[in-house]
Design brief:
single chain; Rossmann fold; 15 strands; binds adenosine-5'-triphosphate; ABC_transporter-like_ATP-bd; transport; nucleotide-binding
Length: 298
């Protein structure tokens, strides 16, 4: 399957020695919902802004359908909602929708108005008088209305209430199914991502540390719990490569890349969640996945 969003050697330097992102390569096919996760300052927003064409790479390239995103002809293929919402405070919600229609002939006016009415957003209220969560809802509705191939959302759930969060995720899923677009969304709430995302990009200190299909990552790792004496080699437990480990005086808990090789019976083997995998790699910035290429596979 051809990649709709791909990056090669992508990097952004903000100051002489300060790189926000470095040497980032990945390929995402159409129809994927990608979780972009990582610690504060790890480069997620930088990657999203580069993918949206809002800033130029210092090195490398990020493309939508093969077109570098800083080019004008890529702009209509990408919709982006950043942490600061791109809305005019003096416009009413209806005027914002009209603005979308005027600036983009392909804009889905009817669908956007329907969505906003369904969310109970007053169309005649000015943006400045909306709550933070309502502003987010409007910005996301406008982004989805663009009918872009790639939708980029930077922490979209951060100021939504507990009912609005799953509703937004459901809406994203429906949009992906209907239009086969690709969604890349950053979030710190891993449990919410598990239900909707099929792929993971994990950033660590400005680098892409892990990428892959979430099902593969979960199937390819295990948590081992055993006596600390069984953990003699920090790099391996038997044939299984160690990602990260925590030890107490008596017990070791180790995240490993799992193969079907036999294991010392002193270890109890547990399946992992997405949270286990993400936390394990975040604790161990030098760990990479040996067995698979660092790509979101087709
Ligand atoms: N405009 C800027 N000028 C200088 N440095 C910047 C700028 N924007 C980001 N950085 C730096 O680049 C690095 C990556 O920042 P970025 O905002 O991409 O991280 P993030 O993963 O989105 O963080 P968070 O989860 O806190 O939103 C950080 O060290 C940050 O300080």
């Amino acid at each position: 399957m051809a990649a709709v969003l791909d990056a090669t050697g992508l990097g952004k330097r903000y100051a002489l020695r300060r790189w926000g992102l470095r040497n980032c390569s990945f390929a995402v096919p159409a129809g994927r919902v990608v979780a972009l996760v990582g610690a504060n300052g790890s480069g997620k927003s930088t990657l999203l802004r580069l993918a949206a064409g809002l800033t130029r790479p210092t090195e490398g390239v990020v493309r939508v359908d093969g077109v570098p995103t800083y080019r004008r002809d890529a702009l209509s293929r990408v919709a982006y909602v950043g942490q600061t919402k791109p809305l005019y405070p003096g416009f009413t919600v209806a005027e914002m929708v009209r603005f979308g229609t005027v600036t983009n002939p392909a804009f889905d006016k009817r669908g956007t108005l329907e969505r906003l009415r369904g969310l109970g957003i007053p169309l005649d209220r000015t943006v400045s008088r909306l709550s933070g969560g309502q502003r987010t809802q409007v910005a996301i509705a406008l982004a989805l209305g663009k009918r872009a191939d790639v939708v980029l959302l930077d922490e979209p759930m951060a100021d939504l209430d507990p009912l609005a969060r799953p509703a937004l995720l459901g809406e994203l899923m429906a949009t992906v199914e209907e239009r086969a677009c690709t969604v890349l969304l950053s979030s710190h709430v891993l449990t919410e991502l598990t239900d909707v995302c099929d792929s993971l990009l994990l950033m660590n200190e400005g680098a892409l540390q892990v990428s892959g299909l979430i099902d593969d990552l979960i199937a390819g790792h295990r948590l081992l719990v055993g006596p600390v004496e069984a953990y003699s080699d920090p790099g391996r437990v038997g044939a299984h490569a160690v990602v990260s480990a925590r030890t107490t005086e008596r017990q070791a808990t180790v995240l490993v890349e799992w193969s079907d090789a036999p294991i010392d019976p002193r270890w109890v083997v547990h399946p992992v969640t997405l949270t286990d995998v993400v936390l394990g790699y975040l604790r161990s910035p030098d760990a990479t996945i040996a067995a698979r290429p660092r790509q979101v596979p087709a």
